[in-house]
C-alpha cells in the first residue's frame, strides 16, 4: 500500500542484521534502558565497549542508585551529553524505591521516570518487554515522512508508527525500522535502489522532489552545532578535570576550561561551572570550589 511500509519486505531485509549488537542479545530492562540512553546522539561503535563497562560496574538499577552520583558521572566519561548520566542515576533511584529495583513495564510509569521521553520509554517496552509498541527516533521519523510524502506532526507520526507494528513482532519490527533508517533511508543520499520500502514510498514514487518531507518532520533531528571551540567544549573540559577526583577552586576554572586565551574566558568559565551545578553534574563547596556530587 502506498505510504505504508511493506511489513514482510522490511522483516525479511532486517532478519539477522546487526544481531551482534550486545543490547539485542538481552531482554534485561535495565540493560536496555542503559543502552538506549547511551545511544542518544552517540555512535554505536563508541557505545558498545562503554555499555559493557557500565553494566559491569552498575549491573542493576539498585547498584546504580546506591552508588554516589559522582561515580556514575565519572563512568559516563567520553559519551557526551552528561546530563543523561544524572537522569539515569535519578531514574535508578526511583526504580529502586518505587518498583523494587525492576524497571517498570508500563508506559505511563516509564514516562514519569527522570529523563525518559516518549522514544526511550517505548524502546524499553519494545526491546525489553517485547510489547507491540512503536519507537520513533530520527531514523524512523525520516522513513515515516518519506513513506507518506509529507511532514508529520509528533502525534501523527506516533499514531502512524503504532498502526503499522505487526502483531507479535514489536521487537523485530522496531529493530528493522531503526536499521533501515540508519543504513538505507539515510539523511543524505538514501539508498533507494536497495530499500525494501521503495515500492510504497510516496516521496520516491513522486520523483523524490525537494524539499525532502523528512526535513522538519517529527522526531527528525536538525543536527548539532559545532563542538570544537564552543562553550560546550570548555564545559566538558571542566567536567573532565572533576572526573580525576580533584576539586577546582574558582581561580582555576578558566584554566580547566582551556580558555586562558579566550576573550571573556574568566566569565565564561564561571558560567560553565554554574551550568554544571545547575545540571546536577557538580556541586560547589562553601569556598566556591567545584567538585563532583
Notes on the structure:
The protein has 293 residues and is mainly α. 50% of the residues lie in helices and 1% in strands. The chain has 15 helices and two strands. A two-stranded antiparallel ribbon has the order 1-2. It is globular, with a radius of gyration of 21 Å. The N and C termini lie far apart (54 Å). The model has no long low-confidence stretch (mean pLDDT 93).
What does the average pLDDT come to? 93
CATH domain class of the largest domain: Mainly Alpha
Please state roughly what percent of the residues sit in beta strands, choosing from under 5%, 5-15%, 15-25%, 25-35%, 35-45% or over 45%. Answer: under 5%
Largest pleated sheet: 2 strands, antiparallel
| Helical run tally | 15
- The oligomeric state is single chain
Instruction: Compute the separation of the termini in Å.
Output: 54 Å
Low-confidence stretches: none
E-strand count: 2
Q: What gyration radius follows from the Cα positions, in whole Å?
A: 21 Å
Q: What strand order characterises the main sheet?
A: 1-2
Shape: globular
CATH topology of the largest domain: Endonuclease III, domain 1
Tally of individual domains: 3
- Fraction of residues in H or I helices: 40-55%
The name of the CATH architecture of the largest domain is Orthogonal Bundle
Helix/strand order: HHHHHHHHHHHHHHHEE
Give the class from helix and strand content and strand pairing. mainly alpha
User: Could you give me the name of the CATH homologous superfamily of the largest domain?
Assistant: Hypothetical protein, domain 2
Amino acid at each position: 500500500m502506498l505510504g505504508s511500509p511493506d511489513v514482510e519486505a522490511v522483516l525479511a531485509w532486517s532478519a539477522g542484521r546487526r544481531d551482534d549488537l550486545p543490547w539485542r542479545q538481552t531482554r534485561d530492562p535495565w540493560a536496555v534502558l542503559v543502552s538506549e540512553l547511551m545511544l542518544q546522539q552517540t555512535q554505536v561503535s563508541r557505545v558498545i565497549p562503554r555499555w559493557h563497562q557500565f553494566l559491569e560496574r552498575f549491573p542493576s538499577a539498585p547498584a546504580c542508585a546506591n552508588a554516589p552520583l559522582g561515580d556514575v558521572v565519572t563512568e559516563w566519561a567520553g559519551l557526551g551529553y552528561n546530563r543523561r548520566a544524572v537522569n539515569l542515576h535519578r531514574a535508578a533511584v526511583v526504580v529502586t524505591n518505587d518498583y523494587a529495583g525492576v524497571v517498570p513495564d508500563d508506559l505511563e510509569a516509564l514516562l514519569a521516570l527522570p529523563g525518559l521521553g516518549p522514544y526511550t520509554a517505548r524502546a524499553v517496552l519494545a526491546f525489553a518487554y517485547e510489547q507491540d509498541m512503536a519507537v520513533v527516533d530520527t531514523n524512523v521519523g525520516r522513513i515515516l515522512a518519506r513513506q507518506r510524502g509529507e511532514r508529520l506532526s509528533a502525534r501523527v507520526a506516533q499514531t502512524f508508527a503504532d498502526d503499522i507494528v505487526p502483531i507479535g513482532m514489536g521487537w523485530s519490527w522496531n529493530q528493522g525500522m531503526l536499521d533501515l533508517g540508519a543504513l538505507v533511508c539515510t539523511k543524505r543520499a538514501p539508498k533507494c535502489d536497495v530499500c525494501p520500502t521503495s515500492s510504497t514510498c510516496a516521496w520516491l514514487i513522486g520523483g523524490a522532489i525537494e524539499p525532502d518531507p523528512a526535513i522538519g518532520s517529527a522526531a527528525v533531528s536538525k543536527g548539532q552545532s559545532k563542538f570544537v571551540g564552543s562553550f560546550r567544549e570548555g564545559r566538558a573540559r571542566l567536567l573532565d578535570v572533576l572526573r580525576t577526583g580533584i576539586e577546582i577552586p574558582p581561580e582555576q576554572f578558566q584554566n580547566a576550561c582551556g580558555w586562558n586565551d579566550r576573550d571573556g574566558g574568566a566569565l565564561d568559565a564561571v558560567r560553565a561551572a554554574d551550568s554544571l551545578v545547575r545540571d546536577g553534574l557538580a556541586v560547589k563547596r562553601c569556598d566556591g570550589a567545584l567538585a563532583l556530587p
